[in-house]
Amino acid sequence: PRPILLTRHGESQDNVRGRIGGDPALRARRCRPSKIYRTGDPLDMILELDLHICILMLPFHDFEHLTLPNRKHSLHIWTSTLQRTILTAGPIGGFPKIQWRALDEIDAGVCDGMTYEEIKKNMPEEYESRKKDKLRYRYPRGESYLDVIQRLEPVIIELERQRAPVVVVSHQAVLRALYAYFTDRPLKEIPHMEVPLHTIIEIELGVTGVQEKRYKLM
Ligand code: G3H
After folding, report:
1. What is the pTM of this model?
2. By the 8 A CB rule, do 71 and 48 touch?
């Protein structure tokens, strides 16, 4: 079996301000490798992959052009077309990277760039309808979770076809949908699942079922 590794982009300015959507850059922040710790079993390959992935999550300028020697396993890195995922994967050299529009965050339409507080205050009906049925609610001129799930179909087909481990650097709504698909969770849970920042979710699809591990990076 080969793992699929799901991770959100590094923290952005908008994450800090609680704004949704947009195409913000990453928050400039220093983080030392010594601050990173691992949880889970130290499988060889994971050790090595994890090292790369830790670096994936490291901000950013200090590690530009870094390529680790002696890697045994090839690794494919898929990002969305939004700069916070591309910048997160930026420091890693030597692996094929693909940008998928289908991995972009849920399109919040007219609410793009707003905070949840602002939506609640300025568009209370929208806020309430989303609260009532987050799975089906479609932002005006934007998307619903069901729309996101549908556009992920080609990504899932490709992911299942890959021979090498794939790191998917994407966004919360999208990763909720991918995670739910691979772990066989019901649709209605998707919009409410926990996919925290700075965490790698490793999913291994084996003959006996799905194994999952989570690595917290800070
Ligand atoms: O809009 C960005 C979020 O990642 C999606 O979160 O569906 O819980 O509002 P939400």
Report:
1. 0.83
2. yes
